[in-house]
Amino acid sequence: MVNSMIRNILAPLALAWMACSFVNAADLSDLKTVTNWQRVANGVWRAELGSLKGEIRYTDLSAAAPKLDALNALSDSCFPFEKGEIKFLTDSQNQAMVRIPTDEDEVLYGFGLQLDAIKHSRKVMTLNVDHWSKGGGRTHAPVPFYISSKGDGVFFNTARFLKIYNQVGNRKDSLRNPPEVDRNPPADEPQPGPWLAQPPGDAVEAQVNGPGMELIVFSGESMLEIVQRYNLFHGGGAMPPLWGLGFWHRVHATFNADQVREELKDFEDRNFPIDVVGLEPGWMTQSYPCTFEWQTKRFPDPAGFTQELLDKGIRLNLWENPYISKSSRMYDAMYPLSGSHLVWLGLVPDYTLPKARKLLTDQHYEDHISIGISGYKIDEVDGYDFWLWPDHATFPSGVSGESMRQSYGLLMQNMLYTDLFKKRNVRTYSLVRASNGSASGYPFVIYSDAYNHKEYLTGISTSSLCGILWTPEARSAGSDREWLNRMQTVCFSAMAQLNAWSSGKKPWSYESVTDDVREAIQMRMRLLPYLYTAFADYHFKGIPPVRAMILEEGFAGGPDEIIVGKLDSEKNPYGKDRRIETTDQYMLGASILVAPFYEDQATKRQVQLPAGRWYNFYTGEFAGAGEIITVTAEALDDRIPLFVKDGALIPMLTEAVNQSDRAIGHPLEIRWYGERSGTGELYEDDGSTFDYERGDFRKRVFHVTRDSDGSAQLQTTIEGDENLEMFGTVQGLKMMTR
Ligand code: GAL
To answer: Could you tell me the pLDDT band of residue 21, with boundaries at 50, 70 and 90?
Structure first.
């Protein structure tokens, strides 16, 4: 049985380590020192080790060049390691290993979109692209980047399988090993500390399945600053079109045009917002493998149908997987440009080849983009050995089967984004099921076939640490309450999507919660100005729009403890500890904390509020300050728990709209929470092109001060006033806290 005593394991460990002093060991004598560090910008250094000849680096595939000005606008800091501390080894098997020292109390976060945990200290992880099943590192986006509580971040920049020993294992020649402890000492022999099943290691040791790697080190004054740097280094975060932030509904895989029309009529009749309809595999003549050509038995007039929807303000998104069927008109031309193995008997094009890219993007332009298709859902780029090509598959470019698997999702994003959208100065918001390092600038959101609500919440936090966007999409539910909880979660995420490809569910399918579900979607629509501004912060400053609590100032730890494992010869023979983490709440935009109800916390849960005063979003009531509070669905009228920081100003539409287009020019209210004077921003641009990159955007900056008589004054300053407004005029300041 687990010991009920909860303690923070770090303090006793620190004592044990202080007692340690070895004198005779030769320190890491067989390892080489990484010496060729180059400073790229404030707080960013890069170095190569081993050979990178012919290797794909993730940075080769990033959406844009580093935003050097924005990087340099962040704090300047020193290289976060001692000189010569980072060591490496290349062996005769053509594998490179790097060793990055860690302190005894250092906590490691990140390593991609992991759905089981955010903290990965003292773990062995395999960072291979895979669908999500058991964890261990394999995931849809195993981004080889970690952030340490000590103030550094390390990115392993090579598209290879990577095995990471995070503070696991002790070298015999390390000078920093903990002291030995007798596990069964006589009573009169005190030990330097408790005996530990796994003596903590003093480094991250990463082995790459290739001859070398590039290391990129980021430092910062906070973990948020390190994440900002990572995103800015990869060109800044993605900026979706405004419509991408509305409500998405993917219809059943076999739907035809008339069924889509009927479904849309239902949305209208029931007063449910919708911006994007997703068509699943049945829209094309054949799928698994695919043709990418319209199935005219279901969609007799694709151009007319797409335009009909656009006229209603609704965009179409098309599902596809990349594997090409014999019945595709591209098959013959693509054959010599594809890999040695098939997937679902379809060709696997080598999209590192310009010719292959051109073939696909020309066809996509002709059949989809030219008629107004807004984006794609790129499926099945994450399967592992069983689904995709084997490690030994070959590709005409010479890129290994392994590197191709690690980067295929990224390659697809790079190709579609660059050659179809960016080139035409049109933004997209799309989906993809696998990604990897350097992806910050891609407006592609990851989803999964896994469906555990708690894991989906964890994904919201972990994705924010590595330049990845993630949707905890709703597909169906076992009860009305579960449906409501899932729909609320997804409405307060990077993409509000119902994926009914198999279930055929609609937002109103669970009758008793229909009004509550509508209210959640409508609240998302009202928050469009706030959400759009959050994405602008992602793009220009690298601040993730949806973020893990550990990136929030004043979130000191949360229930960040270890439950000490009690020795039990059958159930726990090594007395291993259990770790508790806070991954079921997160930040959305500058100042809203979201704490959804889920699973066994379906109607009652705890929320850990960071330091400072926090307020109920709906009522403005004081909720707590730096403490754990309990919230119930009953007290919140079945709405999702949302809390707002003291002094926050939230720009919102005065009422809900059913399409994002109707948010353009719509009047605003500015909500002011708490007691402190506040500042808030509203970012505006044309909502659909890349002209913002040339400076065609404006910012309204709101300031509120309280007068001595308790009344408040709202002042607005405008940056970029020469550019057009996106949203309407501010109707008034709503003082939420009196
Ligand atoms: C799955 C995908 C689902 C749905 C389905 C259609 O692979 O994850 O979301 O698109 O394919 O066949």
So the answer is: very low
**Residue 298 to residues 1, 36, 254, 281, 328: CA-CA distances in angstroms?**
59, 59, 8, 11, 18
The rounded distance, in Å, linking the Cα atoms of 274 and 286 is 28
- Residue-wise pLDDT for 516-537, tens only, equals 999 999 999 999 999 999 999 9
Q: Cα of 510 to ligand 1 centre, how many Å?
A: 22
Atom of ligand 1 nearest to the CA of 473: 9
Ligand 1 atom 12: residue of nearest CA: 281
**Domain match, 295 and 283 both:** yes
Ligand 1 site residues (CB inside 6 A) read: 253, 280-281, 319, 379-380, 449, 499, 501
Question: What is the pLDDT at residue 659?
Answer: 98
Ligand 1 midpoint to CA 161 (Å) = 25
Lowest mean pLDDT among 5-9, 50-54, 518-522: 5-9
**Span from the CA of 332 to the centroid of ligand 1 (angstroms):** 27
Check whether residue 388 and residue 412 sit in a common domain: yes
Q: Domain count of the chain?
A: 4
Residue 21: how many CA atoms within 13 Å on its side-chain side? 2
Task: Tell me, yes or no, whether 246 and 226 share the same domain.
Answer: no
φ/ψ of residue 58, rounded to 5: -60, -35
Which runs of E-coded beta strand occur in 450-513?
469-470, 496-499
Do 274 and 225 share a domain, yes or no? no
Alpha carbon 62 to its chain's center: 16
Q: Which domain holds residue 690?
A: 649-735
Same domain, yes or no: 297 and 223: no
Q: What are 61-103's pLDDT values in tens digits? A: 999 999 999 999 999 989 999 888 999 999 877 899 999 999 9
Question: Residue 331 contacts by C-beta under 8 Å, 6 or more apart in sequence?
Answer: 324, 325, 347
Q: What tens digit of pLDDT does each residue of 278-321 get?
A: 999 999 999 999 999 999 999 999 999 999 999 999 999 999 99
Domain boundary among 501, 530, 559: 530
Query: Among 480, 502, 530, where does a domain finish?
Result: 530
Residues 288 and 149 in one domain: no
Kindly state whether residues 619 and 709 are assigned to the same domain.
no
Give 589-618 pLDDT, tens digit per residue.
999 999 999 999 999 999 999 999 999 999
172 lies in the same domain as 139: yes
